Structure formats: C-alpha cells, structure tokens
Amino acid sequence: MRGRAEALKGHAAMLGFSAAVSGSFSLGALVANDIGPVPLTTVRFLCAALVLALLVALLPGAGRAGRRGFARADLAAPWRYGLLALLYGGYFVLMFEGLKTAHPLAAGAVFTLTPLMTAALAWPMLGQRLRTAVAAPLAVGAAGAVWVIFRGDPGALMRLEIGPGEAIYFLGCVLHAVYAPMLRLLNRGESALVTAALVTAFGFVLFLAWGWAEVLATDWAALPARVWVTLAYLAVFATAFAASAMQFAAQRLPASKVMAYTYATPVWIILWELALGHGVPGWVVLPGVALIVVALLILLRGDQA
Asked: Where do the EamA domain residues begin and end (predicted)?
C-alpha cells in the first residue's frame, strides 16, 4: 500500500512537471531572439539555485533523511552535480537555440520522442526493461501527442520536414533523455530539493565559466519586459519546481514512466498558445487529447516503481 501511495505521488509530481515545463516552449519562443540561450540559462540557474537553497533551509523535511537544510554528505562526490548540470543545462541551451526558428508545437513534437529514448537508455543504465504494460501507454500517448501537434491532419504529418531548429532541439532532447535515469543512478540519499538546488548551483558556475563573455556583453538594462517575466517563470517554475518534481518522481517511478508525462506537454502548449493569443487548433484535436488522457490513466494503474 505504501509503495502504491509513493508511486501515485511520483505521478502527481510529473503531472505538475509537464504543466510547468510547457510554458517554456511558448514563452521561450517569445524571447528566443531577444537574449542568447547561454546568458538566459546562466541567470535562470542562479535564480533557481537561490530559490531552491532557501526552500531547503526553511522547509521542514526538505533535506536529507527528513531534516532541514544541507548536510555534509550531500556534497559527497560533487562531480555528480556537475555532470547532471551539464545534461540539464545543455538541454535548455539547445532548446532555446532551437526555438529561434522552431514553432513551439513543432518543438513539442520533437519532445515527445524523449520517453522512448529514455526507456531505451534505462535498460543499460538502470536495468529497467521496457515491459508491455509501459510500452502500450507510451505508444498510445505518442499517438495522441502526434494527433494534437499535427491537428489531426495525416497530410501534415506526412509532409513533416525537420528544420534546423527542430534538429538542434532534438540533440537537447537526447541530453534530457539521459538526465532522467542519471538522476536515479547518481543519487546517494539526497532529497529532491537538495539535488535540484545543487544541480542548478553547479549549472550556474559551469555556464558562467563557459559563457562569461556573452553574459557580460548582454545589455541587461535594455532587455524588454517580456524577457524578465520569462526569466522569472523559467527560474521558479520551469527550473526550480520542475527539477524538484522530476527528482522526486525519479525516486519513485521507473525512468520510462517519468518521461512518459512529456506526452501531456503538447496539450499544455496549446493552452499556453491560447492564453498568449496565438490561436489554437479547433475541435479536431480532442481525439488526441483523449488518447493522452487514456495513456496517463493506464500509467496511473501500473504504479509499481
């Protein structure tokens, strides 16, 4: 019973994750040509690290073994956080580089390939074989996501041409697919918030060292307001919350199930596009939405971690 309850918590965390990261696509496309991806990622990691460190220090049970604050053991083998930061930050840099030319929904289409890549990597890395019970909802969810993204038009799917933005973002999704099983493989008892705080802190240091010239060359005072709004959202929701949610879920669910929730992202992207006044597809997308919901319900039934 406890195992089922913990797995359900993992599913809830990933549902929140999918809602949070979806805003990155629409908001990221709005500001992709206003600021470079490296300065944006560097500053978002700094802001997220500060928010997460504050949460670790203040929230009861946020640290190791249900305690508050950081422990000396959390810094054991610090190279782990550097490696995770490279994967996580590399994904963001390639995402925003791709969004300079790719439409948010097109990027969402590429993102739906991540669960299958994660499932393939989880076998050699974690010994987690892709069972039929997981493969079936992965396939159903993929079909639903493709239906939504291409607005139920088979012709649009058949005419798909991969542009440079989509190709760049695909490389980022490969890094994201590796990141999920690595979270579980490298964890040594750290809580979700502690891991997320240290990963983003290491990410800030690494990307500042790499792109310091570009960061200093950015005219921060001249940036439009939408960049700062996007930066705040990315730091709090798409980085701090999302990283914590994924780490929390990765300790309770197989990696393939963790990444399965990416199939909900296109639905959230459509809602974001509607909220931003960019227009959305009509009723034709509802069958795809229904397939995604069915896939997630199937996953909720198979709750063994």
From this structure: 9-149, 165-300
49 with 200: CB under 8 angstroms? yes
Question: Per residue in 52-75, is it b (16+ CB within 10 Å) or e — as a string?
Answer: bbebbeeeeebbbeeeeebeeebe
Contacts (Cβ under 8 Å, ≥6 apart) of 124: none
Site of tokens 């983003």:
200
Q: Rounded distance, CA 122 to CA 130, Å?
A: 8
Which three-class secondary structure string do you get for 236-286? HHHHHHHHHHHHHHHCCCCHHHHHHHHHHHHHHHHHHHHHCCCCCCCHHHH
Q: Label residue 255 by pLDDT band (50, 70, 90).
A: low
The reported pTM is 0.82
| DSSP code at position 162 | -
Q: What are the structure tokens assigned to 6, written together?
A: 């913990």
Identity of the residue numbered 37: P
**Helix spans in 32-59 (H):** 37-58
Delimit the domains of the chain by residue range: 2-301
Q: What is the mean pLDDT of the chain?
A: 84
**pLDDT tens sequence across 68-77:** 899 999 999 9
Residue 250: CA count within 13 A, CB half-sphere: 32
Q: Assess whether pLDDT exceeds 50 at residue 112.
A: yes
Residue with token string 């240290």: 198
64 secondary structure, DSSP code: G
**How many angstroms separate the Cα of 17 from the Cα of each of 60, 237, 241, 279?**
22, 9, 7, 24
Task: Provide the 10 A C-beta neighbour count for residue 123.
Answer: 14
Contact predicate 113/171, CB 8 Å: no
| Selection from 59, 71, 56, 170 nearest residue 117 by Cα | 170
Tally: H helices and E strands in the chain: 14, 0
If you average pLDDT over residues 104-126, what whole number do you get?
Answer: 78
